[in-house]
Design a protein that fits this description.
268 residues; Rossmann fold; binds NADP nicotinamide-adenine-dinucleotide phosphate; globular; 7 strands; seven-stranded parallel sheet; alpha/beta; 11 helices
Amino acid sequence: MDLIRQARARLAARLVVVTGASSGIGRAFVEAMAPSGARFVLVARRRELLEQLADHVRDSGSHAMVQALDLRDVEAGRAAAEEVLAHHGIPEVLFSNAGHSIARGLRGLVARPDSVTRSVAANFTGPVCHALPLLGAMCTRGGGHFIATTTVDARTSVPGWSPNVASKAGWDAWARSVAPELRSDGVATSLLAFPLVATPMLPPARRARARCAMSPEAAAEWVARAVVTRQARVAPWWLRPHELLHAAAPVLTARVTAPFSMRLVDRG
Ligand SMILES: NC(=O)c1ccc[n+]([C@@H]2O[C@H](COP(=O)([O-])OP(=O)(O)OC[C@H]3O[C@@H](n4cnc5c(N)ncnc54)[C@H](OP(=O)(O)O)[C@@H]3O)[C@@H](O)[C@H]2O)c1
């Protein structure tokens, strides 16, 4: 709770852009920060959910604007970012969190190659094209904070989840690569490598069974921690050894993972 209070204090009167605000982690973060007095720009496709959240934010004493758009449309993403800069100014925080998870095995991908192109557009090229104008303006001003949602799987291999893992790996690598450039212009970067979180992204059956999944509220505390500490990566304690194992024995770890990760493929 302390982190939530400190993050609220940090965000008071600041402009904060949150993508993926209509649901799950993004929504839980905005709800937790609603009494902060921040000026939120809420981005996702479902306008009705964004408008409901904006009403809640306003009732709690902050400001909220809604941008309903599909980030896979890179021109729409760029235009939305330019609109923020033109009408509201340069954000203090960009929480780039929107994403879409498609689990489809190789055989399924043969008939549905769009699973790959849709994942890359929602998880990589779309978020990058939306972030670029905002990050460029933050660099020119010389300050700000880029918080990017990634996943514990981004630097490993997960059979059956190749569209999701590959597109998130691209996003994770992109964010890590621009971080030093941003830092030299005074902009901090934090990567949030989430494990399972019990949001609508998980199918209901899996959500019910996923006893080890974090709650969206706990995930929102991770975002608050990033806001307060500006640490480069927020991740579970076991992620480093997990990644080292995958780096040291990639074929073996993928084989061991396959029977578990292939159980829920072919949806999305
Ligand atoms: N849940 C997990 O276990 C887990 C684990 C690791 C990482 N993550 C990551 O956490 C982030 C948030 O996911 P979540 O768990 O909170 O799931 P969620 O409840 O499904 O939220 C996803 C958010 O992204 C938005 N979004 C998806 N596609 C979009 C598009 N094309 N254009 C604009 N907005 C789009 C959705 O809004 P609309 O549908 O209204 O557009 C929604 O607000 C994602 O990047 C996800 O990959 C989740």
